[in-house]
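worker-3 :: picked NAD(P)-dependent oxidoreductase
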Amino acid sequence: MPETQDMIHEDSLPGHESALDPKPEWRPRYPGSGRLKDKVAIVTGGDSGIGRAVAALFAREGADVAIVYLLEDDDAQETRRIVEEEGRRAITIKADVGSRKMCDRVVEQTLDAFGKIDILVNNAGEQHPDEDITDITEEQLRRTFQTNIFGMFFMVQAARPHLGQGASIINCTSVTMYKGSGGLLDYSSTKGAITAFTRSLSENLIGDGIRVNAVAPGPIWTPLNPCGGAPKEKIEHFGEGTPMGRAGQPNEVAPSFLFLACEDASYMSGQVLHPNGGVVIGS
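worker-3 :: tokens ->
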């Protein structure tokens, strides 16, 4: 377990899913069909929100899961329980992905527990709302990039020697990369970097049979926004600006990750899926 002083940052984000009302919907909507039978997945930000829904769905489809999380021990243990309830193995790893050393530790502990890595889901992220660019401090700017994009580099660097033919990397970008967000300048910028990283990493690894794709969710009801990632006055109407007129649920996003992780997407790499409530996105 990492020491507290090793943590790059420790604040209220991303927040406890157990404190939300209403609770996000993480439960898979259909029976499993063995699409990830005996695979091993690392899911960063796996304790809550989209990460929890992905862990639950992967487990239902036959995968063992390493659940990487920052602070919320209770949420992480609940996600572990969910995976084990599906009949699969799970471990929880408390780590800040913004630390190269901690990402190395995540991979080591996953290999110690499961012996291999087939799927890496880079889902961990943070956001801090600021309406004026001059309000974004240097500390916040560095911290957001450290978590959101440096963490993906570090996780891939740590996992790369252990990823073989047929492995899959899936990164979480955002609709804000495509349409922008005036109140999330630093966050949206990291999501643009993630999309470019996804496309470039795909080119880098495709010759070795490793597929790299991404998912760009729209507004999804997770702890990220109500626990400080968005102004309080916007939470009441969160997601209403989408064509569907509502926020999405984590279990409406997780199937995109599953599709990209399994053999159904064997001819896809460098691509982005868009579960975003009907927002039409260009390339």
